Amino acid sequence: MEANLLNQPLRLPNGSVLRNRLAKAAMSEALATYGNRPTQALVQLYRRWGVSGLGLIVTGNVMIDRRALGEPGNVVIEDESDLPVLKQWAEAGTAQGSALWVQLNHPGKQSPKGLNAVNLAPSAVPFREDMAAFFDTPREATTAEIQDIIARFGRAAAVCKQAGFSGVQIHAAHGYLINQFLSPHHNRRDDEWGGTPEKRRRFVLAVYAEIRRVGSGFPVGIKLNSADFQRGGFTEQESLDTIRALADAGIDLIEISGGTYEAPAMSGIMQETKKASTAAREAYFLDFAEKARRATQVPLMVTGGFRTAAGMNAALRSGALDVVGVARLLAIDPDAPAALLQGRDSAQQVRPISSGLKAVDRMGLMEIVWYTRQLRRIGKGGAPRPDESGLAAFLKSLVASGWGTFRTKRLRART
User: Fold this and answer.
1) Whole-angstrom Cα distance, residue 228 to residue 230?
2) What's the rounded Cα separation, in Å, for the pair 126 and 241?
3) What range does the domain containing 292 cover?
4) What distances in angstroms separate CA 24 from CA 11, 45, 46, 99, 152, one per listed residue?
5) pLDDT (tens digit, 9 = 90+) per residue, 332-363?
6) What's the whole-model pTM score?
7) CATH number, domain at 289?
8) Does the keyword section mention Oxidoreductase (predicted)?
């Protein structure tokens, strides 16, 4: 009987050690207050995952600027004002030996219409026509605004370290701001921040360098698209070149993903047409991980598509990756890691979630709102509902998002 490779520890380049190769990848929780402060629901949710046996836990979107939210209910870290609750959150996730990293993010243009006063992006490129009703056209960021955003990433990371989190992950995937800077479709600048692949990489490398000032003993990872799967977007070759640059800079862990809201490969919607031999390998981005492994020896994490302990072990045995990322399964079965680490599969299976509304389903929004509702239930001390209707979840989330946007804007207007 072959050994369960999920149980092997992993030493990262900075010397810190993950106790095993199973990670909870980021999912959007939207469990903050409408003033964007962390809550006890987050403490409860991460305590539940913290006892499951995971080697690494990565939080959902934590924003670095209250003026730039990805959705109502995002946690924002700008200073030490929420340090007491942040410390509780860190303690809840790490008390049983898991590493807990905060995913730091800026949404750029990818923010619902009306939530922010203005959305900044590398260039003023609108969303495609069928999505324009949901997202405003952004304003091109000035050089001063770019420098401010870079500094904010560093300040947020410093607070995370002070609070007791184990590390941070830079979100450079899924169409958010850093991904926008990397993409020739979204970044049409001709200054020092765009115009060539090297200049488009300057922003992510500057963000990484600013965060690394927190200290070499504090792990810094990144979530990076293998490609945007969008005409004129970030390509596989550009991603491999970015991986090499990040490796040279000293990154500790690279999580491979792909897609944006306009081309949601990360949700599985675009994976349904893959050939059978690829689908049998479970992981959506394993083919690219093999290319990335030839480009670097930095530890690689792959998230998306894993269904079974056997599939996870086969991927690790291939040598293409070092960490298996699981996300949606942990929203419907928060205890799944205990089974997987014993070589058993979860009793739950991730299924496609559909609202039946083509415009909504094409954007992959159901893969966010439906699972966010499951996380909310766990955060309140309850149990997930794997059988919840996709349409009902969407309609309830639409109402909640509208109310959340209204409350967020009113609170912002008072400050």
Assistant:
1) 5
2) 27
3) 5-352
4) 18, 12, 11, 10, 25
5) 999 999 999 999 999 999 988 888 887 777 76
6) 0.91
7) 3.20.20.70
8) yes
